[in-house]
Amino acid sequence: MEKIVDVGTGKVEVAGRGVILRSLAIGSCMVIAAYDSRKKIGAMAHVMLPGRAPKKSSEKTKYAADAIDEMIEQMTQAGSNKDDLEVCLVGGGNVLRKKDDTVWEDNIKSTILLLKKKDIPIRASVVGGIKRKGVSLDVETGSVFYTKGERKEKLLWKSTGKSPAEQ
Fold first, then answer.
1. Annotated domain spans of the chain
2. How far from chain centre, in Å, is Cα 44?
3. Could you report the per-residue pLDDT of 84-98, keeping only the tens digit for each?
4. Is a pLDDT exceeding 90 seen at residue 65?
5. Which helix (H) or strand (E) holds 135?
6. Which residues make Cβ contacts (< 8 Å) with residue 148, sequence separation at least 6?
7. Residue 91: which region, alpha, beta or left (left: phi > 0; alpha: psi -120 to 50)?
8. pLDDT of amino acid 22
9. Neighbour count for residue 5 (Cβ, 10 Å)
10. Domain 3-166, what architecture?
11. Is the whole-model pTM more than 0.90?
């Protein structure tokens, strides 16, 4: 039986085989599910805010830039190579349906831009909209699943088993 590790807001978790990383009730936040198919190492970062944390912040991984940096660092320490990472994105919704709320849009734009700057390929995404979402990454199989609203879980992406350079 696989172990489930819940990834809360502002947290970064890295795991190996036999683990499912999961983040539920995602609203305006962005969740980055990263996978290294060569080493079968997965990670999940639950980003609350765009950009980089203020210098005095004690919760840096709530911010996209810091969470991505921490995720890459932890995956590298676990044996991954940054060039072997692929990601899926889930979240960034305007679930409160506020017309003047732009944090969800800013989270989407910031996360995508930061990943592009680091040359980390985005393989699939379910972002925007007004429904809350959930995401899970089965590290054993390299499969990313998502939920939207009350709908059943669906497959978002499955690793081909090849690194980005081999594809």
1. 3-166
2. 5
3. 999 999 999 999 998
4. yes
5. strand 133-138
6. 126, 129, 131, 132, 133
7. left
8. 98
9. 19
10. 2-Layer Sandwich (3.30)
11. yes
